[in-house]
Design goal:
- The strands form two sheets. A two-stranded antiparallel sheet has the order 1-2.
- It has twelve helices and four strands, in the order H-H-H-H-H-H-H-H-H-E-E-H-E-E-H-H.
- The protein is 76% helix and 3% strand.
- Helix 1 packs antiparallel against helix 3 and helix 1 runs antiparallel to helix 9.
- The protein is mostly helical.
- The protein is globular and about 50 Å long.
Length: 290
């Protein structure tokens, strides 16, 4: 019990430090300047990545235990690309469907629709993971690398072709892939989920994936953090996005299952960052509001 309490207290402390550093930087005006110029806060992204990695280093823990490893990277790259394709289900059918029905996916009705498609995506992912062949993945390395690079450059190419390429479009590709994708995975699936696994263990077997309470807790935390995306008292905004929280919690399960199956952050980082990088950057090129 003591180990479990200590692990939870440590995670809470790391999160508080991250928030305090973010608020301190915001108070200097640097965050607002970044967002005006680049569309995103790179300092905030560095804090999200740097603090948990610093804790791992200071406590002399092995980075590989937290998913920071390139072992079997060819297989994990293959899983990441396949998981990206599965993510089309909640993005197109879920978010796209909510927009067609004029439902705000940040609120509960729209969020519930997206959550249902996330559940379908999880079912498909579990089938993909069960059928995964490492031997075939080794023969697909070149095509997977080409696909990854081509997809990341797609919004930039479209922006150039339409003469709508801006610094913010390029910045969106970089920030969403590196800091939203891998950054959030390093904190939540890397640090939080792994730390909880150390304390609570992984006693469950779910369709061939060994996991435990850490998977569920990290996913719920992932959803809760998104609930506060619409909460900004400084701007007079006090609404919590419970629909957003609902479907991102299931999204957390999706990414967390990849982390548990592979032991690495590579696959879930690609599955998380690639759809956001391509989708949001293309939306900015096209002038779509998400």
């Amino acid at each position: 019990m003591k180990n479990k309490i200590w692990a939870c207290a440590e995670i809470l402390g790391v999160y508080v430090v991250m928030r305090l550093l973010g608020q301190a930087i915001r108070a200097t005006g640097l965050t607002d300047a970044e967002i005006r110029l680049l569309g995103w806060s790179y300092i905030g992204g560095l804090i999200q990545v740097g603090v948990p990695l610093l804790v791992i280093w200071l406590t002399r823990r092995h980075r590989a235990d937290y998913g920071v490893t390139l072992v079997r990277w060819q297989n994990n790259l293959d899983i990441g690309i396949k998981a990206y394709l599965v993510r089309i289900i909640p993005y197109v059918l879920g978010i796209g469907g909510a927009m067609l029905l004029k439902l705000d996916y940040r609120m509960l009705p729209g969020g519930l629709l997206v959550a249902l498609t996330e559940i379908v995506g999880i079912a498909v992912l579990l089938w993909v993971l069960r059928c995964q062949s490492e031997e075939k993945a080794l023969t697909s390395v070149r095509s997977n690398v080409i696909a990854l690079v081509a997809l990341l450059f797609l919004p930039i190419a479209v922006g150039l072709a339409m003469r709508r390429l801006t610094l913010i479009v390029v910045s969106t590709v970089v920030w969403q892939f590196v800091f939203s994708g891998f950054g959030e995975e390093i904190f939540l699936r890397g640090y939080v989920q792994s730390r909880l696994n150390q304390a609570f263990g992984r006693p469950w077997m779910v369709f061939g994936v060994q996991c435990g309470p850490g998977l569920v807790i990290a996913s719920l935390l992932f959803g809760l953090l998104h609930a506060f995306n619409t909460y900004n008292p400084a701007a007079g905004q006090y609404t919590l996005a419970w629909g957003w929280a609902l479907f991102t919690a299931f999204g957390g399960l999706f990414f967390g299952l990849i982390r548990e199956k592979t032991g690495s952050l590579l696959g879930c980082g690609i599955a998380h960052g690639l759809p956001d990088a391509v989708g949001e950057a293309l939306a900015k090129v096209m002038g779509w509001a998400l």
